Structures are given as structure tokens and as C-alpha cells.
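FORM 7B: Structural annotation worksheet

SECTION A. Query
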Amino acid sequence: EFLPEINDNDGLYDIYIDQLSNGQYGWNCLDSDGSGSSWIEIDDNYEGSSYTTTGEDAMKITIAHEFFHAVQRAYLPASNYNDFFFELSSMWIEDIVYPDINDYINSGWTEKFFNHPHMLSNIQDTNGYSIGLYMHYLTKKIAGNDNQIIQDIWEKFEINNDPLASI
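SECTION B. Predicted structure
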């Protein structure tokens, strides 16, 4: 079982709804108090030409994705080295929580990666969004259908304080 998110002063996880720019699903914002707690801001309607998924489905995957960032912060509050892994993991959790919403497959990020892999010098160049499928590979092919491998990786982050920093 993954660590729980880090609570703020009131013990409730905050999700704010706002009118974000077209195509901005939402984000996880780190509190400035140094505790590792965070909150989520999501779009108010998910309407516009820049959304791959719209409406309630977009809201569902956004909350799953951004809340998993809160869980990740329990292991490693922030990093300048492995942003791609935060995103890669959150793209994976979208599909675990909502397997019938395939935003991560239909997005332009995945298409760019698979059509132009030669343009990447290492995995960090992907930004993580495009390779959410890689986590499924790890869980199914490497770990024999066991999602525990993803938790194990995040525990390594916690113990080693950002093991991907040297990649």
C-alpha cells in the first residue's frame, strides 16, 4: 500500500476548481511550508479544442493523476531531476483507476514519442507523459502482473532521496 498523502493543517485534502486555460487539465501545487503537503487545482469544465478527453472523464483522470502526485510527495516532496518519473507514474495511475478512459494513449505526447524515439537521448527527455505504457510493461512483464513494483520504486526514492538524480 502506498504512503498516504501528507496532510495540511486541517487534515482534508484540498481540491480547487477554477477556469484554467484551454488544454490545462489541472496541477498539483506544493505547499510552501516545507511539509510536503499539497493541493490540486482542476479546470471547471474541460471544454475546448486542446483537450484530448473532455467533461467528467477528463475530471476523473485529472484528479487521479494529480492526487497521485500528492502520494508521490509523501516519498519525495520535489525533485529537479526526475520530473519525468512523477508524470510517468501519474499517467500509469490514471489507467489503473479509470481503465476505460484512454487519454494518455490518445494524447499527442504518446504519438510524438512513438513516431520519433530517435530524437530522445535518454528516458528523461520524454517528460514522462508519453511513456505511461512503460509502467504497464514493468508491472505486467517484469513483475508478473504485480503493481507492487511501482510502490517499490517510490520506496527507493524515499530511502535514497532521489535515486534517479544520477541518471
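SECTION C. Observations
The mean pLDDT is 84. Strands lie at 15-18, 26-30, 38-43.

SECTION D. Sign-off
Analyst initials: ____
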